[in-house]
Amino acid sequence: MITYTVKLRNPAGVVLQDQLPNSAFSWVIGERAVGNLSMAIPGGVIDPNWITPEAKIELWRRVDQLPPAQVGGQWLIDKVRVSGNYQNIIVDAYDFNGVAGHNIIDYPASTPEVTNAYTDKSGAADDVIKAFVRENIGALATDTTRALTGLTVEADTTLGETIAKQASRKNLLETMREIAADCLEKGTYLTWGWAFAENDFTFFTRVGQLGNNHGSTSNDSLYVSYAAGNLINPELVADYSGELTVVKMGGTGTGVDRVIGTATNTARLAHSQFARREYFGSGISTDDVATLNADASAKLGEKRARLVLTGQIVETNYFRYGVHFGYGDLLIAEYAGKTFDVHLDTVSGDVRGGIEKKLDMKFKGEEVI
Fold first, then answer.
1. d(CA 315, CA 224)
2. Which of 5-8's residues contact partners 24+ apart within 8 Å by CB, and which partners?
3. 212 in a domain, yes or no?
4. Which H helix or E strand runs over 63?
C-alpha cells in the first residue's frame, strides 16, 4: 500500500498542520518544468485563514514500511476556491521551478564598450545556471530584496559543456532551460532540482541524470520493455518537421557591416538538396562573432531532427517506484528494435483519503538524426 501524509506551513515556514486529514489531491512533477498540485480539503477541517498565497504544502509518500519520501519538495499555493454547502476548499499550488519562472535576470545588457558579468556569461553550463540563480534569487542578488531567505546554491561542480550566454531581462527559468538544451546539444545531459530541509532549501544541478544511473553505462542497469512487463504506450518518432539546417544570428551593425554568426548542419545538407532549411534571427547586441556563433549553434541544436522514444512505465513486483527506481532515474528502454537510455522525467499521482489510487510515470529518450 502506498500512503501519503500532508503538512501545511505558512509562507514563513511555520507548521500550521502536521498531518492534514481527509484531503484528496493530484500532483505532477517534471524535470525543468513547473510542477502542479491540486488539493481538495473538506470544509471545517482547517482554519480557512491558513490558506494564503505562498503558504507551503508538503507531500510525504510512503511505500509499505519504508521511510517516507518527499514528493515535489514544497508546493506554494497560488489559487484558492471555496465551494458547496460545506465550504470545501480547493487549492492549486506549484513547485519551486515556478519560483524561477516568476523571476527575470534583472540586469542590463552588455555594450560594445562594457561587458556586464551579470548577464554575459561563459563557462561550464552547470556553473552558469548556478550563477544566474545566485545573482537573481540567491545571496548574490544586488537588489537584496530579491534574495530568497533559506536558499543555498550548491557549489560549482564544472561538469557541463562550455557554453556562452547573454540573458539581460530574460526569464530565469527559460534561460536555465536554454542553457540545458545547449549543453545537451554539445553532448551532456544537464538538469537541476531542489532539496528541502524544513525551511531551508538548496538548488543543485546534475549531469547525466537527475536521479540514479540505471542506464547503459551503469553496473545496475534496469530495463523497461514488453518482455519485462513494465512498458505501455510506447511511441518511436523520427521527426524532421521543425528541423533547421542553416542558422544565422545578427548582432550589432547595419548593412554589410552587420556582424553575423552562423551554424550549419553539414551532414544533413549533404543528404539531400531539399534538406536546406534556413533561419535568421536577431541575436544579442554584440559584435563578438564567437558569441553569435554560439547563439546560432544553440538554435540549430534546438531544431535538430530527432529520433524520440516515449512511453509509460507500469510497476511489477520487481520494479516498483520508490523501491527499485525513482523520479529522474536513467533507465534502459527497448522497443521496435531500438535500445535507448531514457529519463523518467515526468511523474504524476492521484491520492484519495491518504491512499495512492493512480501513479503515471513517463519517460523520454532521444538522439539527433
1. 10
2. 5/59, 5/60, 5/62, 5/68, 5/354, 6/39, 6/57, 6/58, 6/59, 6/60, 6/354, 7/57, 7/58, 7/60, 8/46, 8/50, 8/55, 8/56, 8/57, 8/58
3. no
4. strand 56-63
Mean pLDDT of 213-240: 96
DSSP state of 154: P
Instruction: Report the SS3 class of residue 46.
Output: coil
Cα 98 from chain centroid (whole Å): 10
As a whole number of angstroms, the distance between CA 212 and CA 209 comes to 7
Question: Is 56 a residue whose pLDDT tops 90?
Answer: yes
- pTM here is 0.88
Please give the distance of CA 193 from its chain centroid, rounded to a whole number: 8
Cα R_g (the chain), whole angstroms:
23
* Residues 283 and 323 occupy one common structural domain: no
In a domain, 215, yes or no: no
Cβ atoms of residues 209 and 189 within 8 Å? yes
Please list the helix, strand and coil fractions of the chain in percent, rounded to the nearest 5, in that order: 15, 45, 40
**167-179 pLDDT per residue, tens:** 999 999 999 999 9
**Separation of alpha carbons 150 and 194, rounded Å:** 12
49 and 152 within one domain? no
pLDDT, position 182: 87
